[in-house]
């Protein structure tokens, strides 16, 4: 069982590492790129990923959520201007989710917050973040900043296959 737990934690590490890799593509000149005329900016997608991690942690491991900062301004809709703060909060929330998963798996918890099992929580997080990753990559593509195929292989797809 410990090997399976280690593999599940590794899955999260890979997923959150891919989000970090994508966030490193974003700078002040690209953070306002949109995937569609009515879509969210890339900065808002990154901020949202952090906020969703935070929100679910309040249900799964409130003690870990309490140590996280904000990625949105006071209105709750506008991402912080400082892109580095959003990236820093993504790193913190990635670690907090991993810690929560590690705890839940180690303790063989069946109910994890509203989820029927810690693996269901992990699955939701991976699916949610993968969706946002695709939208961010689309926004980059539509604005002429699509990463090269080799970058994607090294920083996204290859991570899953290693």
Written account of the structure:
The chain contains six helices and no strands. The chain has helices at 2-25, 42-60, 62-65, 83-106, 118-142, 149-161. By secondary structure, it is mainly α. The model has no long low-confidence stretch (mean pLDDT 95).
Summarize the structure.
67% of the residues lie in helices and 0% in strands. It is an all-alpha fold.
Average the pLDDT over all residues and give the rounded result. Answer: 95
Tell me the series of helices and strands, N- to C-terminal. HHHHHH
Which structural class do you get from the secondary structure elements? mainly alpha
Note the main sheet. none
Radius of gyration computed on alpha carbons: 16 Å
Task: Quote the distance from N terminus to C terminus.
Answer: 21 Å
Overall 3D shape: globular
Task: Return residue spans where pLDDT drops below 50 for at least 5 consecutive residues.
Answer: none
Strand content: under 5%
User: Fraction of residues in helices?
Assistant: 55-70%
State the total count of DSSP E strands: 0
* Number of separate helices: 6
């Amino acid at each position: 069982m410990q090997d399976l737990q280690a593999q599940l934690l590794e899955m999260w590490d890979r997923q959150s590492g891919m989000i970090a890799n994508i966030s490193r593509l974003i700078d002040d000149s690209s953070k306002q790129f949109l995937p569609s005329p009515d879509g969210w900016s890339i900065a808002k997608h990154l901020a949202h990923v952090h906020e969703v991690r935070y929100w679910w942690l309040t249900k799964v491991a409130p003690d870990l959520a309490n140590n996280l900062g904000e990625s949105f301004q006071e209105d709750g809709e506008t991402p912080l201007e400082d892109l580095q703060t959003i990236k820093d909060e993504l790193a913190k929330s990635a670690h907090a989710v991993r810690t929560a998963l590690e705890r839940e798996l180690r303790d063989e918890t069946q109910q994890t917050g509203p989820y029927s099992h810690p693996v269901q929580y992990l699955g939701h997080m991976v699916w949610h973040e993968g969706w946002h990753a695709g939208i961010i990559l689309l926004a980059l593509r539509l604005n002429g900043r699509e990463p090269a195929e080799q970058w994607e292989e090294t920083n996204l797809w290859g991570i899953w296959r290693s």
